[in-house]
């Protein structure tokens, strides 16, 4: 495996567009059951907010030493302000569209003894005006970057994803997509899509052998006019499909503690290494290593260039 190209990565500029969310953690101790209902009582001792979704991809890109701009939609609320603050602290160039009629997507997790006891989600789809602003801003920003990363969490920010891919193709900027759902026609013309095992099954059906997976993956890749298709397969590793065929790498993780946000780290590492000049498969090897490191951490975390090296 070639050395991590830290110097080349430092010159890379990535635009991340997609669904932004705030991950809020309440950590506490559980020492009794509620007299009102058979549920644990958590005495909250510490609170922590972290960037989630597309914002976590951007945070990982910066942690790896590259430059990241973040484009997405937040509400004009406390959580939206927190996203802006955290992005600034992380060194991310924020290009956020504010929709005052929308709550910022917020995932609140209650933790007891390092275990997740409850998650509460606040989310609504963005309005037409906010989406039009996002598209206009994307078209201005794309040409100033080496790579466009689309982080789709099906929260609505990428409702017009076809227009963003079209604009990137016109500007000659490669597009990496972390897809959602099974309607992959939306991503036609991207450079690569990175479905996980379950998402791939939703898109092409269950496969019963590696040969069958390869046949279906290559058919999908050609249909969508992709350079590459990467299936991330948890403990089974990652499999890349290009016009040159199939290439596989086994999982890197030594100990799995928390898988939340692992896909964001994989996407970030893939983007910066590919944009630095690596081949798709060499970039996949580094993405696999980064994903293996981040699942050993609690919650949405990042991997740094130093940890990778």
From TrEMBL:
PROSITE patterns: PFKB_KINASES_1 (PS00583), PFKB_KINASES_2 (PS00584)
Cross-referenced Pfam families: PfkB
CDD domains on file: RfaE_like
Domain of life: Bacteria
GO molecular function: heptose 7-phosphate kinase activity; heptose-1-phosphate adenylyltransferase activity; phosphotransferase activity, alcohol group as acceptor
Positions of the Carbohydrate kinase PfkB domain: 14-301
Record's keyword annotation contains Lipid metabolism: no
Keyword field: Kinase, Transferase
SUPFAM superfamilies linked to this entry: Ribokinase-like
GO CC term (a single one): cytosol
Name recorded for this polypeptide: D-glycero-beta-D-manno-heptose-7-phosphate kinase
Species the sequence originates in: Pollutimonas harenae
């Amino acid at each position: 495996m070639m050395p991590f190209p830290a110097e080349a990565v430092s010159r890379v500029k990535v635009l991340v567009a997609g669904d932004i969310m705030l991950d809020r953690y309440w950590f506490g101790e559980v020492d009794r059951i509620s007299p009102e209902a058979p549920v644990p009582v958590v005495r909250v001792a510490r609170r922590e907010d972290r960037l989630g979704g597309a914002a976590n991809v951007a945070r990982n890109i910066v942690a790896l030493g590259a430059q990241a701009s973040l484009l997405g939609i937040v509400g004009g609320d406390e959580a939206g302000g927190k996203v802006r603050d955290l992005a600034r602290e992380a060194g991310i160039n924020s290009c956020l569209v504010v929709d005052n009629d929308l709550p910022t997507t917020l995932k609140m997790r209650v933790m007891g003894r390092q275990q997740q006891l409850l998650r509460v989600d606040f989310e609504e789809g963005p309005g037409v005006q906010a989406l039009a602003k996002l598209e206009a801003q994307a078209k201005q920003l794309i040409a100033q970057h080496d790579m466009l990363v689309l982080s789709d969490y099906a929260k609505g920010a990428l409702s017009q994803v076809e227009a963003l891919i079209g604009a990137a193709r016109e500007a000659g900027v490669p597009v990496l997509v972390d897809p959602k759902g099974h309607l992959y026609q939306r991503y036609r013309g991207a450079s690569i899509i990175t479905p996980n095992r379950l998402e791939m099954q939703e898109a092409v059906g269950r496969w019963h052998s590696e040969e069958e997976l390869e046949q279906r993956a290559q058919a999908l890749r050609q249909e969508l006019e992709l350079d590459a298709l990467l299936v991330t397969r948890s403990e089974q590793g990652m499999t890349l499909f290009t016009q040159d065929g199939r290439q596989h790498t086994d999982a890197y993780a030594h100990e799995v503690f928390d898988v939340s946000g692992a896909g964001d780290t994989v996407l970030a590492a893939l983007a910066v290494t590919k944009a630095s000049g690596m081949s798709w498969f060499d970039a996949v090897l580094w993405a696999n290593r980064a994903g293996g490191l981040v699942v050993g951490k609690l919650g949405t975390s990042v991997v740094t260039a130093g940890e990778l090296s």
